[in-house]
Structure formats: structure tokens, C-alpha cells
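Box 3.1 A note on notation
Throughout this textbook, protein chains are presented in two layers. The first layer is the amino acid sequence; the second is a C-alpha cell string describing backbone geometry. Keep the layers aligned when reading.
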Amino acid sequence: MRISTWLVAAALALTGLAPASPALAADGNPLEKTNGFYVDPDSNPAVWVRDHPADSLAGPIKTSIATKPGARWFGNWSGDIRTAVDKYTYAADVADKLPVLVAYNIPGRDCGGESTGGAGSPQAYRDWISAFADGIGGKPAIVVLEPDALAQLDCLSGTARTDRVDLLKFAATQFAQKAPNTWAYMDGGNATWIPAATMASRLKQVGVQSIHGFVLNVSNFYTTAESTTYGKAVGAALGYAAPFVVDSSRNGNGHGTDSEWCNPPKRKLGATSQLGGGPEMQLWIKVPGDSDGSCGYGTGIPAGTFSPVLANHLINGD
């Protein structure tokens, strides 16, 4: 779409986001350098569809999920991270599309939960995230930084908590310095997890002002409207209209009335990746059909593993 500067400004105005952020004024605009969002040809749903062409679910999953633009997650499973990121962003660049990448390798990831793991030490993480930024370089990209890492600060204490803040601040600095055409967004939890003023304080601690903005609802189910209300409250507490994006991959039916977050029933695909709609962008960040862990509808399916059954539940909203 090679969105012009005036169109981007108009879209931001409609979302109530003024270009007041220092990062927004200074960084390159990846929307202007690309023609739409990148569809990962090797996403878990796409690979499953290719491998199971005769399955009755292959058609619906291909149409509703595998051919839609979404994020690719990178972590300690990605091999040489600079090479992996460079290869992915190069493919998107050749296609003139904008890729969305998720950095998910903070030490103590998920506080020992279903997605436990991460870099083995603070220095290992510094090396990893620095190489991640090097892999993008000047290519246009969107990067989501460390889902849940700030919202889960309360599960850490002492040195571990200090280390996490320092590492997230270091990560922000790497993208600000090394990836001039990348919009990086620090994860800010979801609409009901952490009070807006507290999250704003945490975002300031890790230098959100040095990157483009923050991201909400990653792998969660709150509606875009709920997330937008929370995002604007966080922005007000930050003291400037910080751009934010919302993960809309599974929020079509909202969060529901229960507190279940792990492969719950009656959730549905949300709006596909697009500009506006309340936040700066709505993006499919969680890969629809990838399990949250061995729980709920995904009992026996490890976190991050694709399940056609889970995908079909999201397509049907049941």
C-alpha cells in the first residue's frame, strides 16, 4: 500500500494518537516503505495445511488463518538469531511487505509457567537481542518486545527484577540504535492485569520513550475497544500520546465471563492485521491455533504447538 505520510497522519489522528512522541518524530516509518503486512509462508498453520491437504480442516484453516498476515515468534528455538531474523525480514523485504516479529527470550520467561524458558543469563540475553536488532538492520519491520515480561515483574524479586528492567531497557536501546526503519513496541500486558499508572511507570523504567510505543493483549482475548480504553489510560499516565497496538488474533468474542486464559472455549478470531480501529494497529500477534499450553481445549498440547482442533474452535467461535 506504500502509505503516504499524510495518510499515516490521518490514520493516527482518527485513533487519537498525535505524533508527539519523540520516537514517532524521529524514527523511519516502515508503513511508507512497504505494501501491506507480510504473510508468513512457513507459519505453523501454513505448514500444517501443506502437510495435510486432504484433511477436512485444511480448507477452513487455510482460508481463515494460514493466508492471513501475522507475527513470527523468535526465541531460544530459533538457532542463530541474527541469521534467522535477517532471513525472515529479507524475504518480507523482497516481497515489499511489512513483517511482524516477536522477541520472546527474556531470562525467566513466563515465570516458570507454560512457556517457561528464555536466555540462560543476562549477558546471553544482551548478546541475543543485540544480534536480533542486527538481523533487521535497515529493513522495515515491526517488533514486539517480550510479551508478559513487564506485567510479570511481580513474580520476581531482588536482583532478578532489577535485571529484567535493565534487560528490557537494553533491548529498547538496541532497536532505537540499530534498526532505524523498525517500529518496536514494548509489551504492556492487557486491559485488566496491571493498573494503567503502574504499567506506565514500568514502561518508563524500560525506556519506552526511546522506541515507537507499546503493545497490549498479546495472546489474550480482551476486545479491541477494552484494550484501547486501557491503552489511552496508559498513554495519559505516560504524559504523551504513545502509539500502541493491540493483538486482535483471538479477541473476536472478547474475554468472556470466566478467568480462563489457557486455550479457553468460546473464543474467536478477531480483526485481521490492519491500521486503526482504536489503536494505531490491530495485529495478529499470537498465532491462531498455537496452544497456550497443556490446558483447556489444548490439554496434552505443549505451548507454541499448532493444533488444527484449536484453530477450528477459533474459526467457529465455539
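The chain has one domain: 5-316. The longest strand covers residues 182-187.
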